Amino acid sequence: MRVRPLLFPDPPRQIPRHRVLGVALRTAHLMTFGALLGGHLFAVDPTRLMPFLIATIASGLGLMALELASTCAWLFMGKGLAVLLKLLVLLMVPVFWEHRVPLLLLTVAMASVGSHMPSRFRHRLVLPAMQRLCVPPRDGRPEAVQADSR
Predict the structure, then answer these.
(1) Whole-model pTM above 0.90?
(2) How many structural domains are present in the chain?
């Protein structure tokens, strides 16, 4: 069995109730992250923030799983790379604990820009090398697949 069609189906898989699931997960994610950010901003006891941290991680993983279930090409699109960059910033929080509030605010700013950037950037395969992996070759020839020129 070939792995490429499983990871990068063309066209991407249609997930039943994708929109409803995405809205529900995104709403939960925004609510829990907002509570977590506010807790850090106002120096709430860390043990009281733990349920919000767990819920934020769970809803974020749910959002990623929903996108990856459709196609793993999502990781290499503008919207997937924006999420990976936010995760990189979030991974700096334990290392730079005293700067956690600015890092969390930066994450909110990155999320806002990533969610509202034009579609041509959100849906574009950013890494041209991944174009060959994510898009099936035409006429059986890999060289027939061209990187998006937009």
Answers:
(1) no
(2) 1
Query: Residue 73: which domain range?
Result: 4-137
CA angle 93, 97, 103 (to 5 degrees): 45
DSSP state at residue 137: P
53 exposed, middle or buried (CB, 10 Å; 0-12, 13-18, 19+)?
middle
Tens digits of per-residue pLDDT, 45-78? 999 999 999 999 999 999 999 999 999 999 999 9
Give residue for tokens 């991407």.
Answer: 12
Q: Quick check: helix, strand or coil at residue 77?
A: strand
Residue 126 lies in a domain: yes
Sequence-separated (6 or more) residues with CB below 8 Å from residue 108: 33, 37
How many Å apart are CA 59 and CA 21, to the nearest integer? 11
Tell me which residue has tokens 């860390």: 46
Instruction: Write out the H or E segment, with its range, that includes residue 128.
Output: helix 128-134
